[in-house]
Amino acid sequence: MNIQKIVFYIATGVLTAIMIYSVQMYLRNPEVIAGYFESVNYPKYLVYPLAIAKILGLVAIWGNFSKSLKEWAYAGFFFDVTLAFTAHLVAKDGGESFAIIAFISLMISYFSGKTVRP
Length: 118
Hints:
By secondary structure, the protein is an all-alpha fold. The protein has 5 helices and no strands. Helix 1 crosses helix 2 and helix 4 packs antiparallel against helix 5.
């Protein structure tokens, strides 16, 4: 296994861990998350659809079913992480560090995945 593949798998693994952590928070504490969403002016009805979208995005990336589907999944995660970073920054709750780690992992996974066939 070459170094580029290792980098891809580590970055995608970190991104996956952060997204799974996020999904489990959304599903275990939907009222708390909905309250947080409202505090940063996001609609609270997004909690469940966002959790489902994150799961489907991970399936699209790891499943490698379609190149365009994988691109859409990466795009969705890009917007999700960008909006999460902004929300945490506005709320001043210190959660932006996870968003930064997710963003870096997302970029490394995306660009290293362009040349690696998982």
